[in-house]
Automatic annotation (TrEMBL):
Keyword Protein biosynthesis applies: no
UniProt feature coiled coil, ranges: 137-164
Molecular-function annotations in GO: transcription coregulator activity
Role noted for this protein: Component of the Mediator complex, a coactivator involved in the regulated transcription of nearly all RNA polymerase II-dependent genes. Mediator functions as a bridge to convey information from gene-specific regulatory proteins to the basal RNA polymerase II transcription machinery.
Alphabetized Pfam families for the sequence: Med7 (PF05983)
Major subcellular location class: nucleus
Keyword annotations from UniProtKB, A to Z: Activator, Coiled coil, Nucleus, Transcription, Transcription regulation
Organism for this UniProt entry: Arabidopsis arenosa
Record's protein name: Mediator of RNA polymerase II transcription subunit 7
């Protein structure tokens, strides 16, 4: 019984048979996907929106207003997480049957921490881009200064060479 190591190519390659002679003969690429789509059984969306904790079925442990003090809330959730982990250790020693409730609370705190951190991602991206652009501006200014310095040095050398030829 003979088997092929690789499957045959899909029939799409026939659409490109005249590409070397006429690059315009190839079909246009498909338009980008907009909205929701299914991939490997999961529903995805092309919109870059951070879903709220309520949409994910997680209770929000920090204020819901738009002016959240991220530093204060992250510290508060971190302290609460540490306390719940200590309580989990205590529960595992004294009442091992009640550990599931503590694990659920710790999971909720972690999800809140992650949600707060993910809501800071756009700010982080902007700050990173600003930093990169400032570095590029600084490098270009240094390159311009280096070119000016070398030009002045070349002009001085040429002037010295003409003076010695004339003299």
């Amino acid at each position: 019984m003979a088997t092929a190591t690789y499957p045959p190519p899909p029939p799409y390659y026939r659409l490109y048979k005249d590409y070397s002679e006429n690059p315009n003969s190839a079909p246009e690429p498909p338009p980008p996907i907009e909205g929701t789509y299914v991939c490997f059984g999961g529903n995805y969306t092309t919109e870059d929106v951070l879903p709220s904790l309520e949409e994910q079925g997680v209770p929000q442990l920090y204020p819901k207003d738009s002016n959240v003090d991220y530093k204060k809330e992250l510290r508060s959730l971190n302290r609460e997480l540490q306390l719940h982990i200590l309580e989990l250790a205590d529960v595992l020693v004294d009442r091992p049957s009640q550990y599931a409730k503590r694990i659920g609370e710790i999971s909720s705190i972690f999800k809140n921490l992650h949600h707060l951190l993910n809501s800071l991602r756009p700010h982080q991206a902007r700050a990173t881009l600003i930093h990169i652009m400032e570095l590029q501006i600084q490098q270009r200014k240094q390159a311009v200064e280096d070119i000016k310095r070398r030009r002045e040095e070349a002009q001085r050398l040429l002037k010295d060479a003409f003076v010695t030829l004339d003299g």
